[in-house]
Amino acid sequence: MTTEGFSQAAKNRAEARGMRIDIVPYDELSDWEPPFRFCDVCTDWDSDRAPGGVYIDRFVGGHEPPGVELVVGAGACDRCQTLYMECNCGTVNHVVEFQHGEWLECEGGCGVEWKAEVEVDRKGVPVTINPHEQVEFRRGS
């Protein structure tokens, strides 16, 4: 947070270190909610383990997957790496490991379909998770 503003260099340094930057005008701050949710797959509220967290990031600039106009954004759980997609209908969907490579329908019933392609090593462990480069979207047939 800042009351003085920030330089582009400061923003670049923060983003290079993996920090999230959200610029929210002061008069809109009371209505702002971060695009954060707890993971539906690995969060167990009865356990002492920390819950997994997911930030749903918007697709802006850079690599935009096919069908990006159909969705709000995508993200991955910081604990279990489950991929998430928020559809324009407002539904947040996730894909579990055995569903990678399959076209899945939005759980909101709006007709949007999405697919996640995740590269895995020889043991089946995901090599890298980048939800903005490993998903694509389409209108269902």
Question: Could you walk me through the main structural features you see in this protein, from its secondary elements to its overall organization?
Answer:
The chain is mostly beta strands. The protein has one domain (32-139). Helices cover 6% and strands 25% of the residues. It has one helix and nine strands. It has one helix at residues 8-16, and strands spanning 36-38, 53-55, 57-58, 71-76, 83-87, 92-95, 104-105, 112-116, 135-139. The strands form three sheets. Strands 3-4-5-6 form a four-stranded antiparallel sheet, with no helix packed on it. Strands 7-8-9 form a three-stranded antiparallel sheet, with no helix packed on it. Strand 7 (104-105) and strand 8 (112-116) form a beta hairpin. The mean pLDDT is 83.
Characteristic key phrases:
141 residues, mainly beta
Topology of this structure?
Elements: H1 8-16, E1 36-38, E2 53-55, E3 57-58, E4 71-76, E5 83-87, E6 92-95, E7 104-105, E8 112-116, E9 135-139
Antiparallel strand pairs: 1-2, 3-4, 4-5, 5-6, 7-8, 8-9
Identify low-pLDDT runs: none
Let me know the number of strands: 9
Strand content: 15-25%
Name the overall outline. Answer: globular
Secondary structure: helix percent: under 10%
Largest sheet: 4 strands, antiparallel
Please write the string of helix (H) and strand (E) elements.
HEEEEEEEEE
Radius of gyration: 17 Å
- The structural class is mainly beta
- The largest sheet has its strands arranged as 3-4-5-6
